[in-house]
Amino acid sequence: MARVMGTGDGAEVIPTIGNGGSDIPGYMVVGFEVVPCNFMHNVQSVKNSKMYGKYPSPIKCDPTTVAMPIRENEPIVFTYEVTFEESDIKWPSRWDAYLRMEGSKVHWFSIMNSLMVITFLAGIVLVIFLRTVRRDLTRYEELDKEAQAQMNEELSGWKLVVGDVFRAPTNASLLCVMVGDGVQILGMAVVTILFAALGFMSPASRGTLITGMLIFYMILGIAAGYVAVRLWRTIGCGDHKGWVSVSWRAACFFPGIAFFILTILNFLLWGSHSTGAIPISLFVVLILLWFCISVPLTLIGGYFGAKAPHIEYPVRTNQIPREIPAQKYPSWLLVLGAGTLPFGTLFIELFFIMSSIWMGRVYYVFGFLLIVFILLVVVCAEVSLVLTYMHLCVEDWKWWWKSFFASGSVAIYIFLYSINYLVFDLKSLSGPISATLYLGYSLLMVLAIMFATGTVGFLSSFWFVHYLFSSVKLD
Q1: Closest to 460 in 3D by CA, of 236, 225, 183
Q2: What is the span of the domain harbouring residue 112?
Q3: Count of domains observed in the chain
Q4: Does residue 74 fall inside a structural domain?
Q5: Has residue 166 been placed in a domain?
Q6: Any idea where this protein resides (predicted)?
Q7: How far, in Å, CA of 178 to CA of 380, rounded?
Q8: Rounded to whole angstroms, how far apart are CA atoms 340 and 414?
């Protein structure tokens, strides 16, 4: 119990029992502790007792012993006893007992592990920039024209693909749409985690987090349309044609996948007569928010993207594509393996998030989550940049999709971890419908992560390739 002296610490929120107008303080409950125990009651004496009367016999509560055997067709007596104790806890601090941070060493271990991965990758990137790229460019620019002509014949590695490196990828419009949606999801995650870390979205307020995510996602439709259309115009060398179609796809691609998955899961819930099914009214509200707010904002962003100047390529693209030499190992194998590094930075934090979603635990360490998220973005950028450079060095100029999936492949490992979590940690799930619901929601989460991390990898690789070939003077 905490005293209330009318000092503004909650006295005006919850009325307390006391003598009106007197200085005697009232009390409010600021916490509770439940101790269950098993006791052998006399059923007949309890039946004969009157309300507010004294209990027939004293009760000694020992939580470690089981005193009453349970037999069929025998009545069971349930009783409870309340003891009030005065406390120094203030009314605004009543949640602290449930939000007390435990296991902070695990979070710090996760962050230190991520920093080691980042340092290792940063060293590789530094070597690429300082030793390889700078050395090659300096040596090339110091030669006279005859030596340059001779060197052109002896070029090897990334300099050989100068006429193909900016060749438009296959399914360019799909890539633009996925990058645009990735920017939208990434921006939503950054803003939501930042607001939660600053304390604006408390776990004490149920639904605040998901509501904030929806609002930020809809507003950032402008960014999705702008990035998708501008990238589309850059790939098309400034052509305005088709920007409306790209904007529409960006507005409907990921939300369409999400609605498809949610609808299937909802039909399963309706079929099993579950109270957890999303009501039709909420579905209608979500569709109205999608088409009345998110889609128009995405189209507005696409309009600004169509008006903005496209990014000029530093080198010309040859009309005839260069043949890619045979590789010792499949390039996609390297791309899929690259996802292990981003996964290594977040798998410890992922356990706490999964426990919060599926085990009913409160997740509140958003400061740690913000740090891990920043480290994840840095690792994704570095991994994609290093792999893009490796592909260019073996004369593989088809780097567009590979740079996206180099960092986006972390989603595969997160989904495998989700299956592992289902098998070993969620043994209490009953029936195939519960497992299907879990896998469906996990698939939706994994797709969102793939879009966001893939976008980080692609944009960093695009910047790197543009910077690299803008420094080369090749005719």
Answers
A1: 183
A2: 105-471
A3: 1
A4: no
A5: yes
A6: Endosome membrane; Golgi apparatus membrane
A7: 16
A8: 10
The DSSP letter of residue 324 is P
User: Using CA atoms, how far apart are residues 268 and 277, in angstroms rounded to an integer?
Assistant: 9
* pLDDT tens readout for residues 414-457: 999 999 988 888 877 777 888 899 999 999 999 999 999 999 99
DSSP 2: E
Residue 236 lies in a domain: yes
**Which long-range contacts link 292-298 to residues 24+ away (Cβ below 8 Å)?**
293/218, 293/221, 294/217, 294/218, 294/221, 294/251, 294/255, 295/221, 295/248, 295/251, 295/252, 297/218, 297/219, 297/221, 297/222, 297/225, 298/221, 298/222, 298/224, 298/225, 298/247, 298/250, 298/251
Counting runs of H as helices and runs of E as strands, what totals does the chain give?
A: 16, 2
Two tokens, residue 76: 């069971």
Encode pLDDT of 151-203 as tens digits. Answer: 554 455 677 777 788 888 888 899 999 999 999 999 999 999 999 888 787 76
- Are the CB atoms for 379 and 447 separated by under 8 Å? no
| Amino acid letter, 267 | F
Evaluate the CA torsion angle 151, 152, 157, 162 in order and state its sign.
positive
Query: What confidence tens digit (pLDDT) does each residue in 69-122 have?
Result: 778 888 888 888 888 888 888 877 777 666 665 566 777 777 787 788 788 777
Distance CA 249, CA 267 (A): 26
What six digits make up the tokens of 267? 């039909």
Is the Cβ–Cβ distance between 178 and 224 less than 8 Å? Answer: no
Residue 192 lies in a domain: yes
DSSP codes joined into one string, 102-163? --HHHHHHHHHHHHHHHHHHHHHHHHIIIIIIHHHHHHHHTS-HHHHHHHHHT--GGGGGTT
Confidence of residue 66 (pLDDT cuts 50, 70, 90): confident
Contacts of 468 (CB under 8 A, 6+ apart): 133, 158, 392
Measured distance CA(118)–CA(336) in Å, rounded: 19
**Which residue's structure tokens are 């986006």?**
408
Nearest Cα neighbor of 392 from 297, 315, 445 is 315
- Write the CB contacts of 337 (distance below 8 Å, at least 6 apart in sequence): 409
- In whole angstroms, what is the distance from residue 228 CA to residue 233 CA? 9
Residue type, 66: V
Say which residues have a Cβ less than 8 Å from residue 403's Cβ, sequence separation at least 6. Answer: 384, 387, 388, 457, 458, 460, 461, 462
Count the neighbouring beta carbons within 10 Å of the beta carbon of residue 348.
Answer: 17
Which amino acid, one-letter code, is at 69?
P
